[in-house]
Amino acid sequence: MIQDQQWLLSVGVFLPLVGVLVMLFIPKKDEATAKGVAIITAAATLAVGLYTLFKFDYDQSEKLQFFTTNSWIKPIKATYTMGLDGISLPMYILSMIITLLVMIYSWDHVPNPGNAKAFFILMLVLQTGMAGTFVAQDLILFFVFFEVVLLPMYFMIGVWGGENRQYASLKFFLYTMFGSALMLVAFIALFINTGSVSFSIPYLIENGSSIAKNTAIWIFAGMFIGFAVKVPMFPFHTWLPDAHTQAPTQGSVILAAILLKLGTYGFIRIALPILPQAAEKWAPAIGVLAVIGIIYGSLGCLAQTDMKRLIAFSSVAHMGFVMLGISTLTPLGINAALFGMVAHGLITGMLFFVAGSIKERYHTLEIKRLSGMLLQMPRMGWILGFCAMASLGLPGLAGFWGEFPAILASWSPAEVLVANGHQTLFRALTIVAALGTVLAAGYLLWLYQRTAFGEPSAEFAGAGHGHDDHGHHDHGHDDHHSDIHDVSKFEWIAWTPLLIAIVVFGVVPSLMFKVMDPAVQQLASVFGGK
Amino acid sequence: MFAAGTESAGWFLEHAWLIPLIPAVAFFLIIGVGKRLPRGGSEIGIASMLASLVIAAGTAYQWIQRVDAPVAEGELGLSRASAGFGRVVSEKVATEGHEVLPVINSWNWFDIGGLKVSIGSHIDGLAVTLLLLVAFISTLVQIYSTEYVRGDRRYTHFFASITLFSAGMLTMVLAPNMVQFILGWEIMGLCSFLLIGHWWEQKANSEAALKAFWTVRVGDMGLLVGTAALLSVFGTLEISEINEKAANFAGDNKGMLMFAAVALFIACIGKSGQFPLHTWLPDAMAGPTPVSSLLHSSTMVVAGVFLVARLYPVFHVGLDINIAGQDFNLIAVIGGITILIAAGLAFVQDDIKKVLAYSTVSQLGYMMLGLGVGAWTGAVFHIFTHAFFKCALFLCAGSIAHTGSHHSFDMKTDMGGLRKKMPVTFGVWMVSTAALCGVPFFSGFFSKDEIIDSAKYNDYKLFYFVAIIGAAMTAAYMTRATYLTFFGKARGGAAHFVHGDDALATNAHDAHTVDAHAADAHGHDDHHAPAHHSAPLPFAKSDSSWQITIPLIILGVLAVVSGYLNAPALGIHWFEHMTESSIGSGTAMSVPPPPKFTWAAAAPGLLLVALGFVVSLALCKAVFGEKKNALQGLTQRNVLLGAGHKFLVNKYYLDALYEKVIVHSIAHPISRVVYWTNQNILDGMVNAVGKGGKRSGEFVYKYLDQGLVDGAVNGSGATARGAGTALQPVQSGKVNLYGALLFGAAAVGALVLVLVNS
Predict the structure, then answer these.
(1) Is A332 on the interface with B (CB under 8 A)?
(2) How many domains does chain B have?
(3) How far is residue B147's CA from residue B395's CA, in Å, rounded to a whole number?
(4) Which of B211, B218, B220 is nearest to B187 (CA)?
(5) Could you tell me the pTM of the whole model?
(6) Does B569 lie in the same domain as B451?
(7) Structural domain range at position B653
(8) Does the beta carbon of A32 lie under 8 angstroms from any beta carbon of chain B?
(9) Taking the CB of residue A32, how many other CB atoms lie within 10 A of it?
(10) If you measure CA to CA, which chain B residue comes closest to A235?
(11) What is the ipTM of this complex?
(12) Distance from B226 to chain A by nearest Cα, in Å?
């Protein structure tokens, strides 16, 4: 543990709340000021994040840095402990970037029923919760941040969502709450079984292995459900398509890019290192569920008629790859999972952005009704194609490095799993997971063919401004659709960083692997070699 | 630059990584600024390919020097030296004069979990062959394209994609490890998708693009799993190490090596259009002709063959190739089947490009067969010669469509009698056809004959017969295509072109509007005005313009002379000498030397080819000629022949099986069942739990709270109202109380857990 600049993480986490405080004094009508203050706060937070990135000691990325610990709630021995290592760093920074970009996008995309002030305040609160989860090194603190995230997202879906928002937001909230409850039980059980000394994660990692194996398996079960609901893993995923479909674009992007990763992060940060003896028992089950998720999610995608719901289902499939990587208990697999988390955040975040912008222009996301987007909005169309290619795991783009190493790893899982006779199972899983890559190409390119290729459908044909020699400029402009225009300024500002990141991490994956690998190797050493 | 004691292997050999890098950078330049340039980005593409070609030529030159000048003794083993930026240059130096080791030059790409992955170049005879070939063909095809796709609405995109496509192939060819190999392999997949679907306004084109991508992707499962299997067997993904370890394989997990070989071969089946995944290749003709030409000659489809050749020890040892008593193996069987079924399909095509497409599939079958029977040199040399003549044939087809047949590729309706008006195209076509059919002293003869001979001498008797029958079929279907295109009476678009007759022209144009042909429905009509066309060559004024005919002439010449690099019939074994170090050898692997050529051994095959020519020519004259006779319309009259014809026309019903049965069932019924399950069973359970929770809340409120608790307190109206307000949310489905309920339940669970385990 490196205890320098102990204030840094606290500032990074709580700075958004300062912005919230300021915003409370801005009159509701003055939307521009509210938005401006929120964006400046998010930018300042990101600046703190970049400073953290700069000050991080990459030669010791396996150690918790900027570590701080203070007493907090004494009666239950919960402490205020924060620290950042190579496992947390990418997600911590990603959450800040995504929040800022989503806010920039929201500048001229505040969803109905308006009220920009409240909307932006929620996003800032959300940011505190997300960043806090990734740096908390105390289970109670982790739990608090984990739950803080829920409320703003609940309101974002429930207030700014689609037609069925009440149902979707309630389902999201209750389902996650149900998982959290079991998770809290598990945390308390951990605390008691390690002598009721501390909730500090480093302490528990040291002492967790002393817990009797059977007890550990039960405790793991509690955490498993808590995290699996959040990921979401099959069969706990059914809240996700509803939440995504009903959420406003901003909600979908944050949900996909960051919130889902709270679950997978929990597995890697808490469940595996504290209870390795239980993890090796659970790993085959996790692997099987992960691969079912891959195939099931992909098939679910093929059945969709709504673009946004399709992207939501694809998250189930992609998070299946992440969980498959984790279940191998190998450094290769866990690295793949961490990379996959960031890659999925960038790519699926982008896909939801694009879907949102399409909805804004066409007022529908029904695949049947969309066609020839490349002719009407060539840039938007190519961006969609690029994201589809990234999402299906094209090498050279970020998505590949989440999938390919996971496949390599599951073919040769950790020694403890081989010793328990699970090698054949994992090899079978590898083959099925590889089939998932075919299905991914299937649903993504099929979506692309139906929406982007061909000629614009008659319904929207009059509205295009895209191609000079192809737009049918018959003067029958339908006012309803006359707002079909190509990528706008704020969209470019919000999207360009993501698009660049998808390419850069795809070409130079070591940018991230280098940071994560030492921490992952240390974590996985308990499961035996590679 | 290099540590003391390590000699440089030569500038070009050390810098071969520039060969793919230049077109890759060019791709981004074209995308970025191409539209603003006077030639729409094509100048960047051509310049980058020329630069690659120059470096590839330099690499080839230095490689030849390296092979011819055995290194001095004493420099044993592997010497590695760091050379800045973490680059590792490893140059193996051999003691024996004839064994030349590859020049590997790589940087660390990333390390994860102890696995080191590098990026760089692995240069040996095989890589050099392909590098030179790809850079050369790409350059010619791009020059050709400047005329062929002139005025296209996505001209810049076209050049960007085709440049990236070459970059992908080149990246793959010099890959030092499997990860870079997969990178190049998949980039090609992406570009083939973009190029085949170049005119995506028409659904047929975008479907062909999807089909190509998906089919190859099905094979790619094998690539991913096979690579994982290689890693588990050898603990490395470096190709040179894998080959060395496989060639000296002595472990007891031979089964896993075989598994890896089979899995990887599945990838080759997909990429190289082998049976049963060949069906995407003919559909890929929907792309512009230069794309077909590039795709079918030196890139994309030979990638699968290249993978087998690259990792030959894995396949040779894994599949026990050339083990005494082996009559067949997976590679030979698939190659053999592919030769025959594709050749059969080539007979019933009316679209000239589809004839050539099936011909490619069939020739790829020869390459695979060669690798399957231990004729490594023959197979690789066939990649080399085939690239020239097949590229030439496709470009001829494009030239005809561009100039002679009104953008139609239908031989029956829009061609015929074109030989006099298009002398260059005709000449190149004839030479290339001769090479394809294996006519002695044309290039294809030397390469194909070595494969056929090896099948015989390495005791794969059955495949020897398959191969010579295939050769006869090749001769026959090419005769048919040649006759329909260049001989007989000019029809449709060709009639207009040949006779220059206005009356005919109007008719022809009415009957065959450009868009009627899905394969070439690309709206060429907007630039039909002759003013757009560049000048033709002076000696062939009615032929296509120079950008088309000059590449044709170059390729036509190469279709003859390229064979003389390795002409066993004349005692020339130069190509073999240059590439043999890539085959691999070791304690577990011995590839038999190529058999000694004799005319007697070649005679049966040649006789069959001659027979194929004669019979086919006679039949063509009878069926397609002007004299009425009994053979015309025979397939309509004879039930058996009709059924056979229908079976072929329907492509053995494989497409129907894949599209109508497999893909359709996954995309529709299966996915719907899954989704129904999701909505009604899984989600149904969640909703039921939610409703149950709400009901029990209501129950608690109504009976316990209001009835018992409240009754016991005997509350006043005020108390009751207070409690009612507080608990109202339970009924209206508010969140927090559900949460409280769940937490309550959880707390009980926690207590139980703690009590049980303490």
Answers:
(1) yes
(2) 2
(3) 12
(4) B220
(5) 0.86
(6) yes
(7) 633-691
(8) no
(9) 11
(10) B682
(11) 0.90
(12) 9
